[in-house]
Design a protein that fits this description.
The complex is a heterodimer of chains A (610) and B (488). Chain A has 19 helices and 21 strands. In chain A, the strands form seven sheets. In chain A, strands 1-6-3-5-4-7 form a six-stranded mixed beta barrel. Chain A has a four-stranded mixed β-sheet with strand order 18-9-20-19. Chain A has a two-stranded parallel ribbon with strand order 8-21. The longest helix of chain A has 15 residues. In chain B, 64% of the residues lie in helices and 0% in strands. Chain B contains 17 helices and no strands. In chain B, helix 10 packs across helix 11. The C terminus of chain B is likely disordered. The chains are: A alpha+beta (610), B mainly alpha (488). Chains A and B meet through strand 10, helix 11, helix 12, strand 14 and helix 19 of A and helix 2, helix 6 and helix 11 of B.
């Protein structure tokens, strides 16, 4: 094909190849046959180059390196250009799911920022104390000048960054892009030249008086010594394999309930009625989880989770049913980071269920905490009472608004779509929404037909992909006909997968029937690393986690000082004080002195307090 | 029925320093009382009324405009977000309901306790209760995501075969508030009947006569009427008394039933009731002090009345202060780190002292907590001083502080508990939007519109009852009885 385009006369692939071969070997047909037979051409290796060590050049290069970059300083910073985690070099810039996906480490959405270490930001006067935790930060804007080229962008203080270095994510600030990517971030390509594609040095960073609002999905970055993610180092794990237990708080007994738990009904007549053939459960291995967030996108696409846009993320209204929590532990200049997928825990004693006045969230016999969207009136009490805060509320009709809308805050009483008042459109057909007809048709094709598209004013949350479970059950019943093989089982390969489990590249998520002792999930839950988040609340979640085991080299010098993961150290500090509470009355409120309690915060975390 | 007195016992007036200030000053006659009270609702409209009515109606319109905007657009117009899913709507609901407590307390509990001073203020306080509960009642309805389905909270048999969930305290709320409202209205109306008859009899225009006549249910003031009236009043007072305690207890269960640190606490029911009475009396003072001046009712709503209300405010304010202290103590005593964190680092740690003492970061909402403490614990302590209790302007200003403090109490409970709870990754911050604020101001418009109409068309003081507590009506009063105002 290329030959045709190039205007060659010979267009047969065979002819072209033999011609090339002839150029190398001299056009001998015998050697061509031998080449085809052997699969290689003898004596065709590249000639060895005549190399001589030019020691002067080497030292010159080293000299150049020293003078040109040396170690970066506040005046001459190093610049790192990296492809963005989500939009890559910019090719996925117009993808709403990816734009709204929080960066696995910085948890930023819809923008790129100039990453900078806490120390450097402090030296540049870019950190301001912030008393609260909103998800939108007015962050200071800085200007980077590199070899005469300039770019401006908001600072994001990133614990663990090298000092005097700024990192610029590529792929944002595109001027020619679709309606999603428009206006997202700044263009880091402006100061990137072929001289320095990945690293450059000698950048001059000057603060400006501007600020820029960034939206993040997680505003608090420390675990506060709470045993949410539990970790141990390998040798401790060997000594005490059930180390997770020491994080457990005292758990009260469950009293007698006046109400029947559907699970008890299920147990009582498991044989008679086929409603409770399985007991769904999930196990997430924090050892395998790297926080890549693939599960979040898988969930979003499977369950028709809408994107809400930067403004709404800033108001903590993102809709992700599954989120990845990321915590830093230890000193901000060199912290340890842990990630934890957080989704509905499907508690057996679910706090959300008992407070719903309209029975919109209830339990089914197989242990799912089910959400009845049609029944929900949106009191939001369930979310308030959920200790894991995994419920999402549709504050505006995210699914019905066009992507190009200016603001969710405009009442549809005063807006028009396709030259028709939105209110009259609504009167004619309440499901029609405010999208132009073409976009509406497109959106219909995007959605998963097996999953309800939720309207505004309704609470929603992870269902353990109930549509897949039911689909598999129905398929199995069809197969089973009159026989009794209606139960799904892993052995037979009939067990469905949840979307997150299916997508997880690390295999960290296991889902299945915990009433079957042979299932993967049962075996994982039987491991000693198995623990429940906030177990002392006695919510008895069906989702449990496997604790993280780190494997640092015991020969390293810092291991002597920190034989435990930082998060464990923080936990022990807090709980140690708690145990000493009796003797030291009000001292219990004290936070541990020293460096580790200082919160490794982002620039936003400490950005201007509105 | 007076106890038979031994005629041989001479009845001496107590020495002057022990004499109580009469409930109606200047030994006014019953005709004067009728004229003065009924006169408020008669005659030409005063200018202040017209001006305040226009302002109130404007704000009431704002209230409904905001509701329409909210309904058409979505709950997102408020400042809510993860994890603070309840904000000003619930705060204002509890605040208004709390204010609505004074009325029934005054009319029912003080009636059963034979506190005669209640008669001068009970009518207005009850009206305030009803209008406050109306304002409160708006919020739970409009704060839900799908307002048009609010009726699902009522147990209405329907073809969907669905039924409310009675384990939810929000359900209990529906019943508690609606019962309270119904009984309060009935009680108020019951007490109004003799006075409406007075208004009817004084009416000069046909329309007024017809209107008052209709609502006074043919009251003639016969003995039989009075006898039935007194019995019914007593029964309703008995019915309302438990309601005074139940409503706010149940409202408090909205929080106490949950498992959130700061909400999950057994102290809430009594603490909420005390707080409600506290805020209710605060509001009664705020309303009555200007009114007695404006309507020239100083002889009926006397300084002594104001003093007594100040004392109730002081008592309930001290209970509230005790409850705050107890919450703190239990947070520490329980040994629950989440409770401790909440009380210190979500609420109390101010940037100047506590955060330094305990080496922690200042609580994001420390200012709200300390406004609450200052207004609810410190301000009412000033009512220990007689000079302050008797100084109307000071009492008026302090009563406004009480209202502010109680609003912040609800803010502290709702917002500071929610914004940083169990899992740190959830933590957030809440600030209201302009819509939240306008909605709140709007309910003031609604409240004052109704209150001004009440002042204008209904006797704001129970005429018949006030006459009953004048010295003249009491044969045993040193100044009273048939003894024409003289001492023995």
């Amino acid at each position: 094909v290329l030959a045709v385009i190039a205007g060659e006369q010979k267009t047969s692939a065979y002819d072209i190849t033999t011609a090339t071969f002839g150029q190398i070997d001299g056009g001998n047909s015998e050697s061509w046959k031998k080449f085809l037979h052997d699969g290689y051409l003898a004596n065709s290796a590249s000639k060895a180059a005549n190399v001589r060590l030019d020691s002067g050049a080497a030292s010159r290069a080293a000299q150049d390196l020293k003078t040109a970059s040396g170690s970066p300083t506040l005046e001459k910073m190093d610049v790192v250009f990296h492809r963005d985690y989500k939009v890559d070099d910019g090719r996925y810039n117009n993808n709403g799911w990816l734009q709204e996906l929080p960066d696995p480490i910085s948890k930023l959405t819809w923008d790129n920022a100039i990453l900078m270490s806490p120390e450097t930001a402090k030296a540049k006067g870019l950190i301001r104390e912030r008393g609260n935790q909103t998800q939108q930060y007015p962050n200071p804007v800085i200007e980077i000048e590199l070899n005469g080229r300039k770019v401006k962008g908001p600072v994001w203080v990133q614990p663990g960054m090298a000092d005097n270095t700024v990192a610029l994510a590529l792929g944002y600030g595109r001027t020619k892009t679709g309606r999603v990517g428009r206006g997202c971030g700044y263009n880091a390509y402006t100061i990137r030249t072929t001289d320095a594609l990945y690293y450059a040095s000698g950048a001059n960073v000057t603060p400006t008086s501007d600020t820029y609002v960034l939206a993040t999905t997680q505003s608090h970055w420390q675990m506060e010594g709470r045993p949410v993610v539990r970790e141990a180092n390998f040798d401790e794990y060997q000594k005490n394999p059930s180390f997770v237990k020491r994080f457990d708080e005292e758990t009260p007994e469950h009293g007698e309930s006046h109400y029947t738990n559907p699970l008890d009904i299920a147990k009582a007549d498991a044989n008679k009625n086929n409603k409770a053939m399985h007991a769904w459960g999930m196990s997430i291995d924090l050892n395998s989880c790297v926080g890549c967030s693939t599960c979040m996108i898988a969930c979003q696409s499977e369950n028709n989770v809408p994107i809400v846009g930067k403004e709404m993320v800033g108001k903590s209204r993102e809709m992700h049913w599954l989120r990845i929590d990321r915590y830093y532990a230890g000193p901000p200049e060199n912290p340890q980071a842990v990630t934890q997928p957080m989704l509905c825990q499907h508690c057996e004693a679910a706090p959300c269920e008992s407070v719903c006045p309209v029975n919109a969230t209830t339990h089914d016999e197989e242990g799912l905490n089910v959400m009845v969207y049609n029944r929900c009136v949106g009191t939001r009490y369930c979310s308030n009472n959920c200790p894991y805060k995994v419920r999402r509320f549709n504050f505006f009709d995210y699914n019905k608004h066009p992507l190009t809308h200016e603001s969710f805050y405009t009442s549809p009483l005063v807006t028009k779509t396709d030259d028709e008042w939105d209110f009259s459109r609504w009167l004619k057909n309440p499901d029609r929404g405010y999208k132009p007809e073409d976009e509406w048709r497109l959106v219909k094709m995007v959605k998963n037909p097996d999953v309800t598209v939720r309207m505004r004013g309704v609470m929603e949350k992870c269902t353990f992909c109930v549509q897949r479970l039911e689909g598999a059950k129905i398929a199995q019943k069809v197969k089973a006909r009159d026989t009794e093989y209606t139960k799904l089982s892993e052995k037979d390969g009939t067990m469905p997968q949840t979307a997150c489990q299916q997508a997880c590249p690390a295999g960290a998520i296991a889902f299945g029937d915990i009433s079957d002792p042979e299932s993967t999930v049962s075996k994982l839950k039987a491991q000693e690393r198995n623990y429940t988040v906030l177990e002392f609340l006695n919510t008895r979640p069906r989702l449990t986690y496997l604790a993280k085991v780190r494997n640092p080299n015991p020969e390293m010098p810092d291991y002597k000082e920190h034989a435990k993961p930082y998060s464990t150290e923080e936990y022990l500090k807090k709980s140690g004080e708690r145990e000493g509470a009796e003797s030291h009355a009000m001292d219990t409120f004290k936070e541990p002195p020293g460096g580790t309690h200082e919160e490794p915060t982002s620039g936003g975390e400490r950005g201007a307090h509105k | 029925v007076s106890a038979p007195l031994d005629k041989s016992v001479a009845l001496h007036a107590p020495p002057p320093e022990l004499q109580r200030v009469p409930l109606i000053l200047n030994n006014r006659g019953i005709g004067w009382i009728s004229d003065r009270i009924a006169g408020v609702a008669e005659g030409p409209l005063p200018l202040w009324w017209k001006v305040s009515f226009v302002i109130s109606v404007t704000f009431m319109t704002l209230c409904f405009t905001m509701i329409v905007y909210l309904m058409s657009t979505g709950v997102g117009v408020w400042g809510l977000g993860h994890p603070v899913m309840w904000g000003w709507a619930i705060i204002n609901f509890v605040w208004w309901i709390g204010i609505g407590h004074a009325g029934t307390l005054i009319s029912a509990i003080l009636f059963l306790l034979r506190q005669k001073w209640r008669t001068s203020i009970n009518r207005a306080a009850e009206a305030m209760t009803i209008f406050a509960v109306m304002c409160a009642g708006i919020y739970p309805l409009i704060h839900i995501g799908r307002i048009w389905l609010g009726w699902w909270l009522f147990p209405i048999p329907n073809t969907y075969g669905i039924w409310p969930q009675f384990r939810s305290p929000l359900m209990w709320d529906v019943f508690a508030v609606s019962t309270y409202f119904t009984v309060s209205v009935l009680f108020w109306y019951m007490g109004l009947i003799p006075d409406l008859a007075v208004m009817r009899d004084r009416s000069k225009s046909v329309i007024r006569k017809f209107g008052y006549g209709l609502f006074s249910l043919g009251w003639t003031g016969s003995n039989r009427h009075w006898s039935n009236y007194e019995k019914a009043y007593l029964i309703l007072a008995g019915l309302s008394t438990p309601l005074v305690l139940s409503v706010h207890s149940i409202v408090s269960l909205d929080f106490a039933v949950s498992q959130l640190p700061g909400w999950h606490t057994t102290i809430f029911p009594p603490y909420f009731v005390a707080g409600a009475v506290f805020s209710g009396f605060g509001m009664v003072l705020t309303l009555m002090i200007p009114l007695r001046k404006l309507l020239r009712l100083e002889e009926i709503v006397t300084v002594r009345h104001v003093e007594l209300m100040c004392k109730v405010t002081l008592a309930t304010g001290s209970i509230v202060a005790y409850a705050y202290a107890m919450e703190f103590f239990i947070a520490w005593y329980s040994g629950n780190p989440y409770e401790k964190f909440l009380f210190l680092q979500n609420r109390a740690a101010d940037p100047l002292i506590l955060s330094k003492v305990f080496h922690c970061k200042p609580a994001p909402y420390w200012w709200a907590y300390w406004i609450m403490i200052s207004c609810n614990c410190i301000v009412p302590q000033l009512f220990w001083f007689r000079k302050i209790r008797q100084h109307m302007l000071i009492v008026f200003v302090l009563s406004i502080f009480v209202n502010i403090g109680m609003w912040f109490e609800r803010f502290v409970i709702v917002v500071t508990s929610l914004h940083r709870e169990f899992i740190p990754s959830n933590w957030g911050y809440y600030s209201p939007t302009i819509v939240d604020i306008l909605q709140y101001l709007g309910t003031f418009g609604l409240f004052f519109t109704f209150f001004l109409l009440f002042l204008r068309y209904i006797p704001l003081i129970a005429i018949a009852e006030v006459k009953g507590v004048t010295p003249q009506a009491d044969p045993h009063h040193p100044l009273g009885g048939a003894k024409t105002g003289g001492h023995h």
